[in-house]
Structure formats: C-alpha cells, structure tokens
Amino acid sequence: MEIKNILVSLLAPFENHIANGGEKILGNASSIKRTPDGRVYISGQMQRHALFTAMERLNEADPDKGETYVSNGDGVTNYVEKDLRADMGGFMHPSKNDYSGRRTAPISATMAISISSNPADELSLEESKIARDLLIRLKQDDSSTEGAKKQALATKEFSAYDLMHMNFSLDIGALSISKGFEYGGKSMHLGSTYFLHADAAERKRRARLFLEAAMSLNDYANQARNMVSGEPQQVLIVFDNKVSRKAARFFQANEKERENILAELRERKARVFYGNDKEGDTSVFAAKKQAITFLMENALFNPAGETSNVVPYATFAGEE
C-alpha cells in the first residue's frame, strides 16, 4: 500500500484534572476552558505542544535520530532536514513584510473535547463537573520581611472526570517535502516542483515518531506538577490512500455511522487498526504495535519521486 495520510483518533480518560492549567505554558491561571454547553476542552495549541514534547522525548531516545532534534515552539527554525518541529509543525518567518518564509504543517490536530463526564457512559455529552481547589502558600519564618506578609490564598478549577476525544492527522505528501510553484507570463501558475528534504528511511522514522507521540501525550499541566495523562483508552489508527479525516468522527458517531465509515475505508482499501483497553481482544498497545509493523512494511507517498535527490530547505527557499 502507498500511504498518503495517517489519522489517529483516540479517547483518553482525565480524572480530577486541570488539563489546560499552568501559569507558564499555554494555560489559564485559574480556570478550565469550556465549550458553550459546559464541556471541558483543551485547545489545539496545547494539543500540538503536548504532541511535540512527546515527540522530542521519543526522538532523543531513538538511536537512529542522527542530527535531528525538536526545536522549542518559540524558536522554530527552517531546517526541515533536521528540525522535526519545522518539518511537521510548520513555521512562518516573515521576510521583507511578506510571508515568503512559510511552511504549512503536515500535522493537524483537533481540540480535545469531553464527550462524557460519566465513567459509565462513553457518549453522554453532559456538562463537565467542575469544582475548585484551594491553594495556600504557607510562610513559616515570621522573622523575615517576606514572612511578615500575609499568607497567599488562591483557588483553581478542576474537572472531576472527562473522557476526552482528540484527533491527529499527518499528510504524508507534505512530510519532509516542499512544493515550489512555477510562474510565467502574466503571473500565471504553470506548474509545480517538489523538493525532498529527507530520504525514505528518515521519512518513515518521522511518521513512526508521529504515531507513537500521538499515543504518548502527558505534558498538559505544570502548575504544582499536576499529573495528567492523555494516553488512550481506545484508539483508531487509519492508514489511508488519500487525504481524508472523516474517520475522526468515529468515536462520536452512532452505530450506523460507524459501520458506514468503516465500510467506506474498506472499500478503498485503507487499513484500520482499533484498540480498546476495556474490552475486546485487541488492546491499545497491541493496536499500536500492529500499526507500526504495517507502517514499516509499506511505502510512503512521495510526490517528489523516488529518484529525487535530498536537498536542504535553504536550497528550495533560494537562500543558497
């Protein structure tokens, strides 16, 4: 199979959490984000932060990482050949008041949204149950100037239980590849040229890192080191021969719609892996293991052509 898109859709239970909390990284100081109908959600920005933090850990532990790394979100380079965030997360470097230094991210992510606040019902779509936690800063040393100050009191919201639904997609046709446009005449688009920035083995390694990172999300809150895990309880992994994200609706669909989604994927010979830690014969871990095996045994779509030479992004951008 020639893989053109990888979709990961998952459900993860969050208990007594401040998932988008934290006063330093992409969070609110004291409140949880909620949809108009009262369900807790985590922004797409935070989702991407958690994804690339997980990817950084995985890449650092990978013996085949070579010179690759994941840059900080506030200092993304344009070294697509080495910087995994630049390659898969995209960037925008304004130059001379235009947007010539821009790369659209091959990875896209949805917000994580609570589809149930009831552990006994996976699709209740009920309002999240929010409470407040009292935080106290105690000063023991009354002899110091600081100790003489009043004790600090604060409250922070937390949600009792949310089954969070989230999705991640990787457009293989843009993975480690840039698209150049040829213009002529009166600024007419005459054609396109593709530039390859990593070889086949490295592109497949990056696709594997994406898949593993999407199932290793843990970096949601740093305030008081609140432990939050976004690792899935259920997962649907789709290797598709076209760019499609329809299966992202699977976990919120009724039985009939689920059947139709799976039938459509089978009809066009997409490959689906489903794992459930609560029931059935295939666990989340087993589904991930099977998916990685399938990925390594099949080819990734390469619009640049298999005989294309690997070039630095600077060559594509005309900086060399």
From TrEMBL:
It holds the Pfam family DevR. The keyword Ribonucleoprotein does not apply. One of its GO terms (biological process) is defense response to virus. InterPro entries: CRISPR-assoc_Cas7/Cst2/DevR (IPR010154), CRISPR-assoc_Csp1 (IPR020032). Keywords: Antiviral defense. The keyword Heme does not apply. CRISPR (clustered regularly interspaced short palindromic repeat) is an adaptive immune system that provides protection against mobile genetic elements (viruses, transposable elements and conjugative plasmids). CRISPR clusters contain spacers, sequences complementary to antecedent mobile elements, and target invading nucleic acids. CRISPR clusters are transcribed and processed into CRISPR RNA (crRNA). This is Type I-PGING CRISPR-associated protein Cas7/Csp1. It comes from Phaeodactylibacter luteus. The lineage of its organism: Bacteria, Pseudomonadati, Bacteroidota, Saprospiria, Saprospirales. The gene is cas7p.
